[in-house]
Amino acid sequence: MTISYDEALRERIRAHVACHQRRTVTDPSKRHAAVAVVLVDSEVGEDRVDPAPVDEWIGGRPMPEANLDGRMVDVSGGAAFLLCRRAIRLSSHSAQWALPGGRLDRGETAVDAALRELDEEVGIALPGSAVLGLLDDYPTRSGYVITPVVIWGGGRLDPRPAPEEVVAVYRVGLHQLQRDDSPRFVSIPESPRPVVQIPLGNDLIHAPTGAVLLQLRWLGLEGRHDPVDELEQPVFAWK
Predict the structure, then answer these.
(1) pLDDT in the model for residue 129
(2) 210: Cβ contacts below 8 Å, ≥ 6 apart
(3) What average pLDDT does the segment 54-66 reach?
(4) Binning pLDDT at 50, 70 and 90, where does residue 122 land?
(5) In which region does residue 230 sit, left (phi positive, over 0), alpha (psi from -120 to 50) or beta (all else)?
(6) What φ, ψ does residue 55 adopt, rounded to 5°?
(7) Which residues form the Nudix hydrolase domain (predicted)?
(8) Peptide bond into 51 cis (omega under 30)
(9) Mean of per-residue pLDDT scores for the chain
(10) Three-class HEC string of the chain
């Protein structure tokens, strides 16, 4: 069942985030970044074809599971969030899933950075009044502390991704975060912490993006205050 994109949802998410005791991370060894969790409207069936050249990227390599081919299809419908697939030419984390965002410029707040990166990466300019609140900080293995900023888009919006950074922007229905098989937790020998996986479409979203999306579900939709900052990233994302 899709989730209606309406004022009741906006108020529910805003209220859940407002009453949350936000967990912050202060680590002078890490740089500060912000991501935009943009909530928009979407239509069922508008995403039956993935615009990214997935077959070319896979190059015949076997997939970890039979139903995982890397495509983000059949996920739209109702209230949704914007998810980006990073460009293949980027020097780090190329072709991976991400929320619009990046490091803070000197003197910027997390809100300022999230709104600026949203405009620069996907061509969407929104005012500070659209911000519903902040989720918990997430410290990454690659040396960042990420602050997620939840933003109400106010409609469908029209993403215009910057091709040097983003291959495509997807509208993923919030109901997809509540799949029966989500979240998944796996163990790895390199860490005592569980690696979080969020199944979406025909792929798995890992932390840090996966951790942010899990808190969007737990806190934003369900009012749960469970921490996500100790959930592990897969080893390929440590650099």
Answers:
(1) 98
(2) 183, 196, 197, 198, 204, 231
(3) 75
(4) very high
(5) alpha
(6) -60, -40
(7) 30-196
(8) no
(9) 94
(10) CCCCCCHHHHHHHHHHHHCCCCCCCCCCCCEEEEEEEEEECCCCCCCCCCCCCHHHHHCCCCCCCCCCCCCCCCCCCCCEEEEEEECCCCCCCCCCEECCEEECCCCCCHHHHHHHHHHHHHCCCCCHHHEEEECCCEECCCCEEEEEEEEECCCCCCCCCCCCCEEEEEEEEHHHHHCCCCCEEEEECCEEEEEEEEEECCEEEECCHHHHHHHHHHHHHCCCCCCCCCCECCHHHCC
pTM for the model? 0.95
Which phi and psi (to 5°) does residue 10 adopt? -55, -45
Pair of tokens at residue 168 = 């495509």
Omega before 208 cis (within 30°)?
yes
Q: pLDDT above 70 covers what percent of the chain?
A: 95
Alpha-carbon distance 150 to 99, whole Å? 11
Query: CA-to-CA distance for 132 and 151, rounded, in angstroms?
Result: 6
pLDDT band at 229 (very low <50, low <70, confident <90, very high): very high
Residue 232 confidence (pLDDT): 98
For 190-227, write each residue's pLDDT tens digit. 999 999 999 999 999 999 999 999 999 999 999 999 99
Q: Can you tell me the distance from the alpha carbon of 232 to that of 200, in angstroms, rounded to the nearest whole number?
A: 18
Distant-in-sequence, close-in-space partners of 8: CB < 8 Å, separation ≥ 6 = none
